[in-house]
Design goal:
Elements: E1 6-8, E2 11-13, E3 23-35, E4 48-59, H1 75-86, H2 94-106, E5 111-120, E6 130-137
Antiparallel strand pairs: 1-2, 3-4, 4-5, 5-6
Helix pairs in contact: 1-2
């Protein structure tokens, strides 16, 4: 078994942060943005509030060198990329938005695992949020 991986029967999971596997957890928590999303006509043509959470397991490699931001995965880049994706035209499903966000995160070869949660905040008056959470891996890279 590879350092940092946990195995249970036929399922291998990757922890978020693990010293033995040299993983660091990078996250963006409770980002609220307006985006064009939804399958119904009344949802199209006007932005809706969504809350986005990103949790990434990032391979440290050599770690933080010389206190230099260029040696780490920048959460500013994650926030900027999330904003760009949310402004890049209409999507019907929260699942689609979640996959686009996961792809953005996994484009960095250091990212081994990402959890993405996308919540629509204003769908039902008596419900705080509805949405989806997905988990994707980059182990082969």
């Amino acid at each position: 078994m590879t350092a940092g991986l946990k195995q249970d029967d036929n399922i291998t999971t990757l922890p978020y942060a693990d010293h033995a596997g040299s993983l660091r957890r990078v996250f963006v928590r409770d980002m609220v943005v307006g985006t064009s999303i939804g399958v119904y006509d009344h949802e199209k043509g006007r932005p809706q509030r969504v809350r986005i959470n990103l949790d990434l397991a990032v391979l440290e490699g050599e770690g933080v060198l010389n206190d230099d931001i260029a040696t780490v995965l920048s959460y500013e880049d994650l926030v900027t990329g999330t904003r760009e994706i949310c402004q890049d035209g209409h999507v019907n499903l929260v699942e689609t938005l979640g996959e686009k966000l996961a792809d953005m995160c996994l484009a960095d070869r250091r990212v081994r695992k990402v959890n993405v949660r996308v919540e629509k905040l204003d769908v039902f008056d008596d419900v705080a949020a509805v949405g989806v959470e997905i988990e994707r891996f980059n182990i082969a890279r």
